[in-house]
UniProtKB/TrEMBL annotation, chains A, B:
Transmembrane segments: none annotated. One of its GO terms (molecular function) is DNA-binding transcription factor activity. SUPFAM superfamilies: Winged helix' DNA-binding domain. This is ArsR family transcriptional regulator. InterPro entries: ArsR-like_HTH, HTH_ArsR_DNA-bd_dom, WH-like_DNA-bd_sf, WH_DNA-bd_sf. Residues 1-88 form the HTH arsR-type domain. SMART domains: HTH_ARSR (SM00418). It comes from Dyadobacter jiangsuensis. Gene3D superfamilies: Winged helix-like DNA-binding domain superfamily/Winged helix DNA-binding domain.
DNA sequence: GAAATATGCAACTTGATGGTTGCAAATATA
DNA sequence: TATATTTGCAACCATCAAGTTGCATATTTC
C-alpha cells in the first residue's frame, strides 16, 4: 500500500498539509508550526505524501522546500469520474427509478 | 474518524465494493463472492461504507440490498476542487513560474 | 414447527499506523 | 574550527484496523 494516494489522504493532518502546501510551498519546519504535533511527526507525514508524489522537493541549502504536485491528485479526480454520472441529476433520477423497479420485483 | 469518507475509500477492497455496487445494487452475500476474503470481512467493509453513507440499504425480506449513494462521493469531488486549478494548464504554468521565482530568491 | 438461508454482532489475533525520543548528517554562522 | 540550524532516519510504544471464528437473530422453505 506504500505510495497509495488513497492511503495518503486518509489522514486529516496530511490533508491539512496538502492544503497548506498547495497554497504555498514550505519547509518542514515552517509546516510543523501549523500543527500541535512534533516536527518529526509532520516530517513522517511529508514522507508519506512525497512517497506517493503528492509533494515534490526542492533542496535549497540546508532547507528543503516542498511543493504541491497536482499530477497524482488529478489521478484521484480521474478515479472519481466513474461515479460522477450518479450525481448528475438526470442519471440520478434514472438510478432512483431502477432502484424502485428492483424493490418492486423483489417483492414478487 | 468514524464516518470519514477519506478513511472509507482508503481500503482497496472497499473501493472495489463501491465500483461493483455503483454498477449494480447487491446483497452482502453476492458481493462476498467477488472477493477472496470471508463474508464477514466483506460485511465489515459494507458497515464502514454504510456508516459514512456511501452505501444505503434497502431490506427486502431476509436480504439487504445495498446501493450506491452518490451524495458523499460528491463531497469528495468538492474537496478536490480546491486543487483543480493546479492541474489546469494555464495555472500550472503560473505555478511553475512562481516556483522558479522562489528558487531564485532563495539563492540570494 | 424444524431446517436452511441471509445477515449482523462480539471477541480475539495480527499487522499497520501515528506518535515520541534520540541521534546522525549536512549546511550555515560566529 | 566550533556551534547552531535544518532535516532525515531508526527504534520503540500505543492504538487502530482488517481478518477470522463463533454465535445470535430474522426470514424463508419444507
Amino acid at each position: 500500500m506504500k505510495g497509495d494516494i488513497f492511503q495518503a489522504i486518509a489522514d486529516p493532518t496530511r490533508r491539512a498539509i496538502l492544503v497548506l502546501i498547495a497554497a504555498q510551498s514550505m519547509t518542514p519546519n515552517a509546516l510543523a508550526e501549523h500543527f500541535d504535533t512534533s516536527r518529526q511527526a509532520v516530517s513522517k507525514h511529508i514522507k508519506v505524501l512525497a512517497d506517493c508524489e503528492l509533494l515534490t522537493q526542492n533542496k535549497v541549502g540546508r532547507e528543503i522546500h516542498y511543493y504541491f504536485n497536482p499530477v497524482k491528485m488529478k489521478e484521484l479526480d480521474h478515479w472519481l469520474t466513474q461515479f460522477k454520472k450518479h450525481w448528475e441529476d438526470r442519471f440520478n433520477q434514472l438510478d432512483q427509478l431502477l432502484i424502485n423497479l428492483n424493490s418492486n420485483s423483489d417483492e414478487n
